[in-house]
Amino acid sequence: MSKVLLVHAKGGPPLGHVLSRTAARAEVHLLALSALPPSVAGSARRLCASVVTPGEAERSDLVSLIVTRAEEVGAKAVLTFSEYAVVAVAEACAELGLAGAGGAASLARDKRLMRRTWREHGLAQPEFRAVATEADLHEAAGVLRFPLLLKAAWSAGSTAHQVIRAPHEVAEAWRRSREVMAASAQLGYAELHVAEAQGHFVVEEIVTGTAADWFDEPGWGDYVSVEGVVADGAFHPVCLSGRMPTVEPFTERAGITPALLSQDAQDRVVALAREAVDALGLRDCGTHTEIKLGADGSMWLIETAARFGGAMTVPQIEDVFGLDLVGMLVDHLLGRTVEWPERSLTPAQAAGAAGSLVVLAVDGRGEAWQGRKVWDFPAVAKEVPLSRGSDLSVVAESSLADGSVVPVYDPAAGANTMAALCLLSATDARTVLHDFETLVDALPHVLPAAGPEEVSA
After folding, report:
1. CATH of domain 352-457
2. Percent of the chain with pLDDT over 70
3. How many Å apart are CA 175 and CA 240, to the nearest integer?
């Protein structure tokens, strides 16, 4: 059986899902750069031929660490599903002569380089400036149109996003973004290969999106993602996922597969995603491209990643379209023949729908919950009325344990303040959207109140 080195770090699809699908195709050797989730540790020992957790000193040269470990186990493929390890794994694959994202991986990771590349290709995106100092940010604010969005160039999950509405807000936005990035690094949500990444930022104009021109019913967010893969340099779109509206400033609340766009609209979105991916020059990897939807058919690129979408995007695709993207990518990297979809799959080809909801202490209007709550999934499953045929579950490895106090939502920290990740399958995407709206409205009422002693603990 062919051997694969899987590099694990924070983020990406749930490790349990990734491990089971990879182990079905190859002998797995796990290099754990982040602690294994307790709910997965046992199965990891059973599914993997080896599990290695390197010390801090060994991680100082991450590419060499990956190369050495791959050579030790005789790996014929090296892969990761974590945003924070994408560049290191791509460079290691190049050094080993194995298939991987290629030298352009950093273009799909560093938002400064990504936007410069798209600008060179004339692709639609918000006006932007790269910033490395507070002085840079003041200068950019003098030429861009307010409101502005400050982003960490190497972040994920809407971490360290700051909306700047006027010049006097620049200094505080800069301070807060840097503070959040430092805190995220302590939690393991930070680039693992580029030491100076925490100091890289991009600021951009906020474009006005609208879902009304794209969807037939209300409730959808004004952006979608195109899930796909690049194989031997050729982009293969798989499907589109829709969203609920984000929580201020731009924290994702829910992703739903499939997105209910018309065929014409889907074709136009996929065409822009193809241009975006082709411009980056990726070789062999999953892709996840987010696109903002505007009035009268206008669109803007948000970002492309050289890996599959995070949260439950990959399991949702498997549930709805029957495609095991993890296993298919493993097969491709090992040189096996893989039949990728000839064109992006549509709602008409879907067997039902699925969605993942990030539990944040914010109601459907974007207002913070009144009072602190305790996460209790059994109470949610019992008390929230869902549609007939809908099935709700919690992703244990991405959620707090029952009985934990739900964190206060911090707009600057984004998904870092989530309490849980829930997965819902239903008869169609409209039902998923309706059930998620019901769930969001019900959560602050069905979750138990936290006592003073629990909050202080």
Report:
1. 3.90.1170
2. 100
3. 36
